[in-house]
C-alpha cells in the first residue's frame, strides 16, 4: 500500500513487538511501521478496537505506541533511531510503563 518515492537514505534497524524491521534514517516511527505492513498501532482501553495513524501530524493520538519502555509515545512525531524497541500498545498504558 505504501511505497517510497526515493530510496537513497541510510538504513536503520529497529524492532516492533520483538521483530526486526528496516527503516530509513529520517523516517518517523509511524511511517516505518506502516511501510513494514503493521496493521494497527494500539487498541482502545474500553472496547479493544484497533487503531492506526490517522492524521500523521500529532493531533489525533491514534498512533500511540510504547518506545524503549515508555508508553503513550506518538509514533508520527518521533524519528526512528538505530536499535529502537517499539511495541504496540494494548489498551491504556501509563506514561513510563
Features of the shown structure:
97 residues, mainly beta, seven-stranded mixed sheet, 1 helix, 7 strands
Question: Could you walk me through the main structural features you see in this protein, from its secondary elements to its overall organization?
Answer:
With 97 residues, this protein is mainly beta. It is built from 1 helix and 7 strands; from the N terminus they run E-E-H-E-E-E-E-E. The protein has one helix at residues 29-35; strands at residues 11-16, 19-24, 42-43, 50-51, 64-67, 70-74, 85-90. Strands 1, 2, 3, 4, 5, 6 and 7 form a 7-stranded mixed sheet that branches. Strand 3 (42-43) and strand 4 (50-51) form a beta hairpin. The longest helix has 7 residues, at 29-35. The protein is globular, with a radius of gyration of 13 Å. The N and C termini lie far apart (32 Å).
Topology:
Elements: E1 11-16, E2 19-24, H1 29-35, E3 42-43, E4 50-51, E5 64-67, E6 70-74, E7 85-90
Parallel strand pairs: 1-7, 3-7
Antiparallel strand pairs: 1-2, 3-4, 5-6, 5-7
Amino acid at each position: 500500500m505504501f511505497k517510497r518515492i526515493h530510496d537513497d537514505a541510510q538504513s536503520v534497524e529497529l524492532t516492533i513487538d520483538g521483530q526486526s524491521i528496516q527503516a530509513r534514517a529520517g523516517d518517523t516511527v509511524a511511517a516505518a511501521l506502516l511501510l513494514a505492513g503493521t496493521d494497527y498501532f494500539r487498541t482502545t482501553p474500553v472496547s479493544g478496537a484497533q487503531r492506526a495513524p490517522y492524521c500523521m501530524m500529532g493531533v489525533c493520538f491514534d498512533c500511540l505506541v510504547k518506545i524503549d519502555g515508555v508508553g503513550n509515545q506518538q509514533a508520527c512525531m518521533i524519528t526512528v533511531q538505530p536499535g529502537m524497541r517499539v511495541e504496540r500498545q494494548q489498551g491504556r498504558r501509563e506514561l513510563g510503563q
